[in-house]
Amino acid sequence: MRDVAIIGVGLTKFGELWDVSFRQMMIEAGARALEDAKIDGKQIDAMYVGNMSAGQFIRQEHISSLIADHAGLVPIPSTRVEGACASGGLALRQAVIAVASGIHDFVVAAGIEKMTDILSGQATGALATAADQEWEVFVGATFPALYALMARRHMYEFGTTEEQMAMVAVKNHQNACLNPCAQYHTKITVDSVLKSPPVTLPLKLLDCSPITDGAACVILAPAEKARKFTDTPILVAGTGQASDSISLHSRASLTSLRAAREAAKMAYKASGIEPKDVDLAEVHDCFTIAEIIAIEDLGFCKKGEGGKVTQEGETAIGGRIPVNTSGGLKGKGHPVGATGIAQAAEIVQQLRGEAGKRQVKGAEIGLTHNVGGSGGTAVVHIFRRGD
Amino acid sequence: MNVGIVGYGVYIPRYRIKVEEIAKIWGEDPERIKRGLMVEEKSVPAPDEDTATIAVEAARNAVKRAGIDPQEIGAIYVGSESHPYAVKPTATIVAEAIEATPRLTAADFEFACKAGTAGIQTCIGAVEAGMMKYGMAIGADTAQGAPGDPLEYTAAAGGGAFIVGKNNGESLAMVEGTYSYTTDTPDFWRREMRPYPKHGGRFTGKPAYFKHVISAAHGLLRQLKFTPQDFTYAVFHQPNGKFPLQAAAELGFSKEQVLPGLLTPKIGNTYSGASLIGLASVLDQARPGDRVLVVSFGSGAGSDAFSMVVKDAIEEKRDRAPKVVDYVNTKAYVDYSTYAKYRKLLVR
User: Fold this and answer.
1) Under an 8 A CB cutoff, do A119 and B206 touch?
2) Are residues B234 and B336 in the same domain?
3) Which fold has domain A130-210+236-385?
4) Which residue of B has its CA nearest to A19?
5) 3-state secondary structure of B322
6) Is position B57 within any domain?
7) Of the four, A136, A142, A156, A198, which is 20 to 30 A from B35 by CA?
8) Rounded to whole angstroms, how far apart are CA atoms B134 and B74?
9) pLDDT computed for residue B248 by the predictor
10) B105-154 pLDDT, tens per residue?
11) What number is the ipTM of this complex?
12) Which structural domain, as residue segments, surrounds residue B117?
């Protein structure tokens, strides 16, 4: 297997992009990535696109062809990858495998979701199709409800507080203020999170990631060819993916995602990197409790101490292990299919030292953690500087 | 442009329902809604009131203020999104009721909440062209909001009527200019045979209300070479209390310029009546020489902006008919069940 490097990244602005269409978004992110990599579109060999549900959000399927066509990349192979909110991370993993195997050299891994063309209630319903329809959704559960159950159990088992969860949102909004692509450039306080309207208690409105339009794109190359394009190739040091039951009630634990633990184990093993070596991470904070569980599952703190280390500032920029410097799903926005790719783009910018005001000083190793549904799918990537 | 406003009148039904009363039914936090929408209560039409009766009341008040012979009115246009008839105009009912028939033209306008100002522009054109001595434009609604929809907190009833004539000694305000900004933006709509409108939630804000209101205002300011400081008052369409203040701030108008024409917090959103009742409220208290900006907004979407300068005749004319404040202060509260009956949500 060959070593794989990322040589270019591109993102659209994340937010309510009412005057930009699905295809325009993807072209914009793709063009930026090509420009960043200083590579010609003619050199691209294949493309993997993460997208959860264009069919429900804009009534468009077969987006692999649509995007290849409008990007001017036909006739290269173009494949859509779907794993709910982990679609982007899975697309990246497929692209990594394609380059590592030697089948392709220069591969685009992209992610996109256009979510604001329908009303928010319809979007919530579309997202809920990533849960178990027969056993969860038909009895009234949507994702806020499922994550609220996890939060309640975490509070019960470990004494995690609503204030600690609020601190995740406060930190991520603070980071988002430093990210020009982020949906929100508004600072919030623990008090405003606690006083925001209830969604499914203990989760309030400001505990939840928003509905977002956005696209992201990274360009992969074999490590041995990456130096021709950039002085700072970022190596994909390890990739891991795992599955679990789609329904929450079938799992042994409500306070940890087995799929995330397994995916992390796989990525750590492949890279020879340990949790303590990681300088920063982008994790799947679709709800604030999800970030607390994520940093525990990834081994950044002891089980049950996710709330505590957040409260102590260890996950802030300048802390022991900065988490979600981009603003995370909460502050940067969560265009579901794009999220996994956007996470990788943030780590690449950080490891290159190009993250501007949110730069983590001296960052050499970064990790991304992308989850589908309530934990039925998880994918973890570890990156390090290749220079 | 050599036209002016010769008379104006409003009507607001006397019944009110408070935000608390509606919030109680739907299990919402009333304080949050009051803060979020800047609305305290809204007007409710009585069971025997509709857009036609409201338009007639407003038209009668306008004729009283103008002190003209209704037979000299050459056109009546009624703008509304709740005309009682799909076919057969409200405007003819008004014309007959104020004894303006038969030597006039009449028609109903529809452009969501801005059909009334579209009527004023049509009258300006006709008067300016010498087709008629006076034209009357009315904006009136008994607005619909589906039970449980956020619209239910604001969808109210009321109307305003304006009589346009040549700019001479009888005009109480001179029209300096008008500017429209229109696009096909589907932010809020109601299909044929449907009782309630649908809307795009947050999409009704930035790309709809704000884009059109601000563009129309900018266009007029540029056209007339004015700045916000040249105006004593500014009236913006007011679907809630918050939007007009936010638009004003973005344009550089102060709260003090806007508040005298901001009625939504007390009467709700009267749709086609909203910007006209706001303008009437300003005229009720303005002094000769004051300059007023009015910007309407209609979903679908468009805005009409007007600049007017108040003239001496206002002092003599304004007390001839009830003022906006008189209607705002004449009120009787109803509970949700009475409201449901009045709005025909309960039918026996």
Assistant:
1) no
2) no
3) Peroxisomal Thiolase; Chain A, domain 1 (3.40.47)
4) B207
5) coil
6) yes
7) A142
8) 6
9) 98
10) 999 999 999 999 999 999 999 999 999 999 999 999 999 999 999 999 99
11) 0.77
12) 3-171+322-342
